[in-house]
């Protein structure tokens, strides 16, 4: 793309040392994509010269969402879609299926970085999508497309282009089977924002989470449903991750997690069963595995319930990933419920962090969580003492606990 000496030049022009207060800081203007749930995660919209990385499993909907977004943005701005994954015909077919305005989207099916650069120089787009970085390669390196060296170098060159030309760039990265290797993770530090798709490819719901954002809040969630006309935003997602049980079942506990500005009710499921090996299994999907081992130790030490000879499996329904410790109490009550083979109280929600000393710690925005649960028809809640609402919430009986043992005592 550029000569070897220039390849490693700094991004900023060399400049004098100056006082921070003397630098004029301007609010960056944002260009909404017109897709509300995407704008929400981006922190309001696309920013000129910013580079966004969108990662996710193959087939989760990255190309679909970006084509929908580009078609909308293209109405007012100059947009270019560079695809190394699909042929022009395939993309045209998809655009037809999505019923988007294809006239405004310029398309290039190309994987060689130097040729992409040449097109960027002539087309001068305001917004460009590179789908995906793993297919792009540069002639200056020997290694195959998709290798760590190629992915890094191509992303760095493209980022440099975006910064120097004020182009908004969206780079797609597949999460590879090998995990971190050559996947989007190796690029996180280069780009301005990192968004990840989450969700179970078998269910129709998709979440997009910002895990890094130089221009907005992180941990904001965008929620979509995959339909036959592409991805549709879900503006009121709080009840999506509850499974519908006719009767309350053992091992199920509903928690309220607060992701970004919206509370979300998620069903946590546990299965505790006799282990048939000297090393019982601890497996967790959507929740932290190491934390599960720790929580089980706390359960034994501070509530007298041991599961040394039991396998313990934990799952957050719907492919959601919950990182916040507010899930602790729900995880443990689900475990206790499965172990005793007795369902928890119907229409009950639980949240709270559990400490190593067996204490139940408060979580942020407890009131909002409770109100959302009440709105969805839940009538009982077990929460940390400090999260007890100051004014009662209509239709909701709140049990505030200080210790794990108090919460376990509430279970049947
Ligand atoms: P895609 O955007 O190609 O995924 P990625 O770019 O992340 O690899 O999504 C492909 C999946 O989405 C595919 O399994 C079919 C499904 N899909 C729909 O259900 N409806 C649609 O309108 C489209 C375009 C795709
Ligand atoms: Mg794709």
From TrEMBL:
Domain of life, source organism: Bacteria
Residues spanned by motif RadA KNRFG motif: 212-216
Segments of this protein annotated with the region Lon-protease-like: 311-412
PROSITE patterns: RECA_2
KW Transcription regulation (keyword) present: no
InterPro entries in alphabetical order: AAA+_ATPase, DNA_repair_RadA, P-loop_NTPase, RecA_ATP-bd, Ribosomal_Su5_D2-typ_SF, Ribsml_uS5_D2-typ_fold_subgr
Keywords recorded for this protein, A-Z: ATP-binding, DNA damage, DNA repair, DNA-binding, Hydrolase, Metal-binding, Nucleotide-binding, Stress response, Zinc, Zinc-finger
One Pfam assignment: AAA_25
Record keyword NADP present: no
GO cellular component: cytosol
Amino-acid positions noted as binding ATP in the UniProt annotation, renumbered to this chain: 56-63
Purpose of the protein: Plays a role in repairing double-strand DNA breaks, probably involving stabilizing or processing branched DNA or blocked replication forks. DNA-dependent ATPase involved in processing of recombination intermediates, plays a role in repairing DNA breaks. Stimulates the branch migration of RecA-mediated strand transfer reactions, allowing the 3' invading strand to extend heteroduplex DNA faster. Binds ssDNA in the presence of ADP but not other nucleotides, has ATPase activity that is stimulated by ssDNA and various branched DNA structures, but inhibited by SSB. Does not have RecA's homology-searching function.
Family: Belongs to the RecA family. RadA subfamily.
NCBIfam families: sms
The name this protein goes by in its record: DNA repair protein RadA
Species whose genome carries this gene: Chitinivorax tropicus
Lineage start: Bacteria, Pseudomonadati, Pseudomonadota, Betaproteobacteria, Chitinivorax
Gene it is expressed from: radA
